[in-house]
Amino acid sequence: MCNVYSMTAYRRAIIDLFKVADNRATAIEPRDAIFPGNDAPIVRFAAAGERELVELSWGFVLNM
Question: Rounded CA gap, 33 and 55, in Å?
Answer without folding.
Answer: 14
